Amino acid sequence: MSRSSNRKKIVVVGAGPAGIIFSITAGKLGHEVTLLEARDRIGGKIVYGSIPAFKRPLRSLLSYYEYLLESSSIDLRLNHKASISELSELSPDVVVVATGGKVRPLSICGSAVDPLVALENPLLVGDSVLIVGAGMVGCELAWYLSDIGRKVYLTDILSEEELMQKEHYFNRLILLEKVKERVEGIYLKRKISVKENAGGYFVNVGETSFEVQTVVNATGFEPENDFVSSLKETFSNVMVVGDAKKVGTIYDAVQDAYMKAMTLRG
Ligand SMILES: Cc1cc2nc3c(=O)[nH]c(=O)nc-3n(C[C@H](O)[C@H](O)[C@H](O)COP(=O)(O)OP(=O)(O)OC[C@H]3O[C@@H](n4cnc5c(N)ncnc54)[C@H](O)[C@@H]3O)c2cc1C
């Protein structure tokens, strides 16, 4: 890769796949790159996605990213939640926002648990759980929690035919089959109501009702726009990559990051 004649100071916020690939590419172009990550490890949502045993292959991607960063000159700073004031002190020419997406609010249950929290700490879920949202994340979580002995109920406003339409045909088929084999109940295209009661929730799904200890909000992720807006007020060159721009897949995030980093060639 030929190096840029105009070396820039770049700060990348977020060491998920998008932030990592942006940093590596910009580093190869000869720019000075600092990569800030809020957590104590790199990988972003891949860390959570690779927790279930059936997603183990994703762990080798994490190892590959670790290798890429270790063998580069990127200044990686873990346990570093970037703030506007800290970024200002670094006086970057370019700020890259690769902070991923946040869970969409769930109007029927404000106290619902984040699916990433449930994956990382299944003890918090208790013995029984209602997962709202039967997309890829909701279905994988249902499969995982069932396999470790939790009583799982799954619901979605969509019908089975409408679920996970963007997923690969066979992945979708296998995932739905595994979930149906395992969960206590699956309620699709159904309006539900959730009421908090002593130490749990009372759930009504029309013809049936049941109690669970926890509700998980797996209705999806959306970009975190507030952080981007305040950065744009302070810095003249802000780039937004990966899920922080548009929530998608690892491939989408990596491709977006690579293409945007390559614009710094000149
Ligand atoms: C459970 C689960 C399973 C998945 N499985 C798959 C799969 O099998 N295949 C697939 O293609 N996609 C999968 N995805 C989607 C995929 O993981 C994401 O699309 C991808 O990780 C997005 O990459 P990203 O770098 O844009 O964001 P993220 O991976 O979300 O990374 C963002 C990073 O930014 C950090 N950060 C946030 N704010 C700050 C801040 N202020 N300062 C510093 N750091 C910050 C976060 O800690 C995080 O490390 C899955 C997603 C989930 C939730």
| Structural class designation | alpha/beta
Bound small molecules, which ones? flavin-adenine dinucleotide
Query: What is the C-level CATH assignment of the largest domain?
Result: Alpha Beta
The CATH homologous superfamily of the largest domain is called NAD(P)-binding Rossmann-like Domain
Radius of gyration: 21 Å
Q: What is the level-2 CATH architecture name of the largest domain?
A: 3-Layer(aba) Sandwich
Number of strands: 14
Report the end-to-end length measured between terminal Cα atoms: 12 Å
Helix content: 25-40%
Question: What would you say this structure looks like, in words?
Answer:
- The strands form 4 sheets. A 5-stranded parallel beta sheet has the order 3-2-1-4-14, with helices on both faces. A 4-stranded parallel beta sheet has the order 8-7-6-12, with helices on one face.
- It contains 9 helices and 14 strands.
- By secondary structure, it is an alpha/beta fold.
- The protein has 2 domains: 9-102 and 221-262, 3-Layer(aba) Sandwich (Rossmann fold), CATH 3.40.50.720; 105-217, FAD/NAD(P)-binding domain, CATH 3.50.50.
- Helix 1 packs parallel to helix 9 (250-262).
- The mean pLDDT is 95.
- Residues 13-19, 36-39, 44-46, 48-49, 58, 80-82, 98-100, 119, 137, 242-244, 248-251, 253 line the site of flavin-adenine dinucleotide.
